Amino acid sequence: MTGQIVDTSSHRERDAKAQAIAKAKAIAPDVAARIGSTPKTTFRGDPDIFGRLVEDHDRHRALLAMIEETQGDSEDRRALFAELTYELKAHAAAEEQALWSTVLRDPETTDFARHAISEHKEIEDMLEDLAARDMASPGWLRCFAGLKEEYLHHIREEEQEQFVAAEKRLSASDAQHMRQVFERRKKAEKADAEIEKKIKLKD
Ligand SMILES: [Fe+2]
Ligand SMILES: [Fe+2]
Predict the structure, then answer these.
(1) CB-proximal residues (5 Å) to ion ligand 1
(2) In this entry, which stretches build a coiled coil (predicted)?
(3) How far apart are CA 163 and CA 133, in angstroms?
(4) Which end of the chain is more exposed for a tag (fewer CB within 10 A), N or C?
(5) How far apart are the two ends of the chain, measured CA to CA in Å?
(6) What is the pLDDT of residues 156-190, one digit of tens each?
(7) Which ligand ends up closest to the CA of 55?
(8) Distance (Å) from CA 91 to ligand 2 centroid
């Protein structure tokens, strides 16, 4: 349980977050999405690439919270985990193409892009590992908790460090254009995304 948090966010930020949660809820309307407070970011609700990426991050926060509410090898857990896998893979691939590929070429921000991209690989390995495990086993949720922690760390760091550094080096029109590239790429990536299964981690 999180404690009482004073909400000082604007309407625009709150609406953006509520819409992102609603998209996750559409997958399993009866499962609660308790995402609690989110780390502060100035990008939430922004009309450029960074606002669009944070919208996805909030959707992912909701999916992660919802999976934790599910039990065993249930229909809801299967549907939510499949959606999480497609979402995370498509988001990471489109984010790399729309944003990190450009940020990587700027010597000032190369390291920020490298860091984000290397974490994508770790997260993909964790997804494949979880997909290969029995959802009904008591250990599944424990492994899932590891993925959740890793992913929440990744998106918090993007929002608070890597996006901040990248934004300073990009023009407003770059950031606008990148949003369109991201939208297009994500749609295509999600249509092609698959669930791969491979045990990668030690128990
Ligand atoms: Fe990322
Ligand atoms: Fe991201």
Answers:
(1) 116
(2) 113-176
(3) 34
(4) N
(5) 27
(6) 999 999 999 999 999 999 999 999 999 999 999 99
(7) 2
(8) 7
- One-letter amino acid for residue 148 of the chain: K
CA of residue 145 to ligand 2 center, whole Å: 19
Give the pLDDT score at 10.
87
From the first residue on, what is the mean pLDDT of each consecutive set of 10 residues in the chain (203 residues)? 56 94 97 93 95 98 97 97 98 98 97 97 96 94 96 98 97 96 97 91 68
Domain ranges (residues) in the chain: 11-192
- Given the candidates 1.20.120, 3.20.20, 2.120.10, 3.30.1150, the CATH classification of the domain at 11-192 is 1.20.120
Residue 73, both tokens: 């090898």
Ligand that comes closest to the CA of residue 182: 2
What is the reported pLDDT for 106? 97
Rounded Cα distance between 60 and 89, Å, is 11
Separation of alpha carbons 136 and 72, rounded Å: 4
User: Is the distance from CB of 176 to CB of 47 less than 8 angstroms?
Assistant: yes
pLDDT score of 13: 93
Cα-to-centroid distance, 18 and ligand 2 (Å): 18
* pLDDT at residue 138 in the model: 84
